[in-house]
Automatic annotation (TrEMBL):
Protein name: IclR family transcriptional regulator
Keywords: DNA-binding, Transcription, Transcription regulation
Organism: Streptomyces marokkonensis
Pfam families on file: HTH_IclR, IclR_C
Domain HTH iclR-type intervals: 2-61
Amino acid sequence: MSQTVDRALSILPLLAEGPADLGQVADRLGVHKSTALRLLRTLHEHGMVYRQSDQRYRLGARLFALAQEAMENLDVREIAHAHLVRLNESCGHTVHLAVYEENEVLYIDKVESRYPVRMYSRIGKPVAITVAAVAKLLLADLPEHERRALAEKLDYPMYTSRSTPNAAAFLQELAKVREQGWATDLGGHEESINCVAAPIRGADGRVVAAMSVSAPNVVVTADELLTLLPLVRRTADSISGEYSGRNPAEPK
């Protein structure tokens, strides 16, 4: 039974390369055509493959529907939380997780700093979209026309002297973030608070969430916080791997 399942599943990567006929499938599996046909018929009955009019087989619509449903039901917060806790235990600073929904960037998880100075951010609360490091990462991943349209309609409050002043500066910052793959907020929202952030990506490479480490100047300087960037990026990569299915989940 396990060999049959293994052979059937081996057909799917082959068809992902493009349509293939019965002979090509049999050759790839190293089996007789009758065996390959039996496997293809079973996959066809379940909508996993589709037989074209030229008698070649391709991936079926049911497979794509299942993949889409699985992606929609993935809970990035549930997957990320243990990683965020480990990062917090390692560095001691506040760790955030954020997503982009309906033109807002929202915090969906937070692990508090072990230091007595706490941040006012709350789960479910929108971030300062024009300055927050997590927002820069999420918006930088949007298609260019969407980035421009959003940048033009945003307000640009000057929270501090380091806040983003206008759409042109914001787009320039997003281009930089998109190229380097990480972001910072060094006193852009609050003079005394600095933040470094990294993206969490799905199986298609798109940014699905962003995570950050934040700390006040009285605890660490901006330069000291920036030394944590490699650790933050490794944590984000680990979450991305588990979320996209590239890496197995670590024991909780």
